[in-house]
Amino acid sequence: MGRNTAVVIDDDPDVRALIVNILSSSGFDVIETDNGVEGVEAVFSHDPVITTLDVNMPGIDGYETARRIRERSSTYIVIITALTDEADAVLGFSVGADDVVVKPFRARELRARLLAAQRRQVSTATPAVGAPVIDTLGWNGLKLVRGAHVVTVDDEPVSLTRTEFDLLATILESAPDVRSKADLVHSVRDDPRLLPVRDADERAIETHMANLRRKLGESAATPRFIETVRGVGYRAITSPVEV
């Protein structure tokens, strides 16, 4: 993966130029396209750390673009959209997006989000000096190998987005403690001081958790791996569970 490469996919030249400027000034080499088909090809060719994309584009829209990208790439996908309905954000996460930013956005906040995403990608790809190469977590048939970025359930592989993987790792590492939604927002941002936690951020965590549970094959009503502590947050189930 190109550690300082980003792809921007947006058919609005003004918005595209603004995002390219934000990324370029933050040290990224930026490849820009104005449609989803070329954007998918650019991601596959350049293997970027971060990909931003618009929703309403000619040809294939942002959701289909994200879905195609996610089939072959673990790039951090940020959907930037003028759509404000919560269902639109849920759809974005369901097709593999890691974050959703609503237009109009503040350039400083978008820069902070993108830089935090870059740090997360690099920190998970490059183990710290003296750290074990592989760190394995899990119970009840669930196994997460952080160094290899692998998750299995009953020895069957589970494909997760970067954000879903990081949420699961955070919850497992915190066991038996509960992690609040705000805690989890901070953990996936990797820079809690610059960005306030808003209601929309906590709702995004709820959506990511719903997607994560679906992929792990469990439900909130009958959890096998993660339980919801009502009014508090989420906690790993470490005791044996009958399946």
UniProtKB/TrEMBL annotation:
Location of the Response regulatory domain: 5-118
GO cellular component term, pick one: cytosol
Superkingdom assignment: Bacteria
GO biological process, one term: regulation of DNA-templated transcription
Keyword set includes Transcription regulation: yes
Keywords per UniProt: DNA-binding, Phosphoprotein, Transcription, Transcription regulation, Two-component regulatory system
Positions carrying 4-aspartylphosphate: D54
Pfam families linked to this entry: Response_reg, Trans_reg_C
Keyword Transcription regulation found: yes
DNA-binding region residue numbers: 134-238
GO molecular function, one term: transcription cis-regulatory region binding
Transmembrane segments: none
Domain OmpR/PhoB-type, residue spans: 134-238
PANTHER family in UniProt: REGULATOR OF RPOS (PTHR48111), TWO-COMPONENT RESPONSE REGULATOR ORR33 (PTHR48111:SF1)
Full protein name: DNA-binding response OmpR family regulator
Source organism of the structure: Microbacterium telephonicum
